[in-house]
Amino acid sequence: MIEKINDHISMIFTEQGFTFSNCVLIDDERRTAIDSGAGKIMKSIDPPSVETLLISHHHVDHINGNDFFTRATILAHPLEKEAMQDPMKTTATHGWGELMDEDIMKLAENLTGRMRRVLEPWPVHGTFADRDVFDCGRTKVMVIHTPGHTAGHCSFYFPDEEFIFTGDICLSKVGPWYGDPDTTIDEFLDSVDLIIGLKPKKLSTGHVNRVITEKIPEQLTEYRDRIHKREKRILNFLKKGPATLNEMAERKLIYGLHPNTFVLFWEKSMLKKHLDRLAAGDAVKKGDDGKYYLTGRS
Fold it and tell me: How far apart are CA 10 and CA 3, in angstroms?
């Protein structure tokens, strides 16, 4: 589905689920797109005619259509450019060996054809920085560095339209996701507050298939505060007694379901982030037995 913001800006909403993502098309004097992961519907925007492709972050659901933009200059934040050369980062499995017993390469053995492409590097021709402005003609778009989901994650603000595309500050029911070991929970919280402070009148994300125009601050605040609620669940669980990270993961304190091994890994990744944050604040400590203990100082 394609929904117009105005005559020159359109949201490209994927219909292929969470392994794909929504994208933005700026059909102006310089044809520009933001992200490429919308799947089959991307053919309708004629990717070879796009001159500039801006990348919100390195995860494969946002870049899996990059190869179809055959004439585009592909740009990303410097940290994302680097990450796009590492398949463990593009597949959101960076840090797997520390937390999981399964051999991830065995899980990837059956990948064939286009799916195997995700294990290869992704070309990036240049970089952009926070507050850079791209002039597409009648449309201006500003880069807003919003780390937390990944270290170089960026949102894109259209000041004249008071519209922002927030990538994987996604407002979906299962979010937020902050399992990347290269960034912090505090950065995610600050990034959401930054977007609230911009006071956009229209907002769209990588995984909600509509343009949001009502109660934007309230929706962002509720989304941000899920992080605090998760941390409270962890503390309440540890009140019952010390536990290992694996024991906490079994209780599904982040996700209500673990439909596959990858979701279990992401549960552990985010639990570790919370435990590291709580330990830094002296609320918990890790014992020699591998269990986490409350200190009584939270």
Answer: 6
